[in-house]
UniProtKB/TrEMBL annotation:
It is found in: Mitochondrion inner membrane. GO terms for molecular function: proton-transporting ATP synthase activity, rotational mechanism. It comes from the Eukaryota. GO terms for cellular component: mitochondrial inner membrane; proton-transporting ATP synthase complex. GO terms for biological process: proton motive force-driven mitochondrial ATP synthesis. Keywords: Acetylation, ATP synthesis, CF(0), Hydrogen ion transport, Ion transport, Membrane, Mitochondrion, Mitochondrion inner membrane, Phosphoprotein, Transmembrane, Transmembrane helix, Transport. Component of the ATP synthase complex composed at least of ATP5F1A/subunit alpha, ATP5F1B/subunit beta, ATP5MC1/subunit c (homooctomer), MT-ATP6/subunit a, MT-ATP8/subunit 8, ATP5ME/subunit e, ATP5MF/subunit f, ATP5MG/subunit g, ATP5MK/subunit k, ATP5MJ/subunit j, ATP5F1C/subunit gamma, ATP5F1D/subunit delta, ATP5F1E/subunit epsilon, ATP5PF/subunit F6, ATP5PB/subunit b, ATP5PD/subunit d, ATP5PO/subunit OSCP. This is ATP synthase F(0) complex subunit f, mitochondrial. It is a single-pass membrane protein. The chain crosses the membrane at residues 43-62. Pfam families: WRW (PF10206).
Length: 76
């Protein structure tokens, strides 16, 4: 997947943005991740730690509004 910077807009327009295309992209990403980090002979904690880091980042993004409000409050 070697895309030059000048060809990037046309490459993005050629992608399939239908629900089946998006589902297929997620499935390909999942299978690529699974085969590279989980389904190996000598596994390590790197695959699980990536999932954990993604979960922490996602939950932080969901609760950012409340955390931002608490940060701006003054406690006496």
């Amino acid at each position: 997947m070697d895309v030059k910077l000048g060809e990037l807009p046309s490459w993005i327009l050629m992608r399939d943005f239908t629900p089946n295309g998006i589902l297929g992209a997620f499935q390909r990403g999942y299978h690529r991740y699974y085969n590279k980090y989980i389904n190996v002979k000598k596994g390590s904690v790197s695959g699980v730690s990536m999932v954990l880091a993604a979960y922490v980042l996602f939950s932080y993004c969901l609760s950012y509004k409340e955390l931002k409000h608490e940060r701006l409050c003054k406690y006496h």
